[in-house]
Amino acid sequence: MTAENRARRTGLTVVAIVLSAITVFPVLWMATSSLKPRDSVTDGQLIPREVTFDNFVYVFTEVPFARYMWNSFFISAVITLAALLFHSMAAYALARLKFPGREPIFLSIFATLLVSAPVVLIPLFLVAKELHLLDSYAGLIIPAIFNAFGIFLLRQFYLGFPREIEEAAIVDGAGHWRIYWSIVLPMSKPILAALTVFFFLANWNAFVWPLVATSSEELTVVQLGIASFQTQYASSWNYILAAATVAALPMLALFFAFQRQIVESIKTSGMKS
Predict the structure, then answer these.
(1) Locate the ABC transmembrane type-1 domain: which residues (predicted)?
(2) pTM to 2 decimal places
(3) CB atoms < 10 A from the CB of 11, how many?
(4) CB-CB contact of 254 with 200 (8 Å)
(5) Domain holding 100: CATH number?
(6) How many independent structural domains does the chain possess?
(7) pLDDT digits 0-9 by tens, 145-170
(8) Contacts of 266 (CB under 8 A, 6+ apart)
(9) How many helices (H) and strands (E) does the chain have?
(10) Structural domain span for residue 215
């Protein structure tokens, strides 16, 4: 390695470290501030002079925050499982099966990525109202299952499958469903693991649709719970930060558990056509 290459690599490493520090600092500040008493939570110091866990005790005893987290976990888990199943089937059909209208269907699905969520919020609310889905788990789950990004990413992944595997399975008498279930899904573990993180994270952080579609406290999700903390305890940032820290921990754990699969899926999916 030449001196120029070493200098360039060192420079890129320094830039990556700086950007990583900038990204991590807000999370670190949130976690350390959640351990501070109320009178010192805004003192501007990263390391707390006095550590207390009373903020977390208050969050779980005075507010049904465990219920909020359960709602978010249940809704996110069901949406993620359903989305992975239906998206993988749709993507496999769009990538490997030949039928009339395949390309227009894919382009129509892909075009929905250009439509922002606020545009469809009111029509979605009216449809959910007519179907009596408001203020229910079904109303929170069903509208969130479809995700054009998941279908697109899986289709790109399936386009790289060697056709010899499918042809060998067809020679052995396997149909499309058997090929999908016994061959395609097991080979899709990296991309499915990455999409698990993306889908779960997106629905765990969902705020606007749960706010519009629900009014019962029994269906309150974690992000609405944190928002209610900001309304009720506007000056008690120790409670707000404690609630936010608790809500962030599952996502951090999920990301670190699947970070290798995320990188591998991005490397292997590519932009095939």
Answers:
(1) 69-258
(2) 0.86
(3) 10
(4) yes
(5) 1.10.3720.10
(6) 1
(7) 998 999 998 998 898 888 888 888 88
(8) 194
(9) 14, 0
(10) 64-271
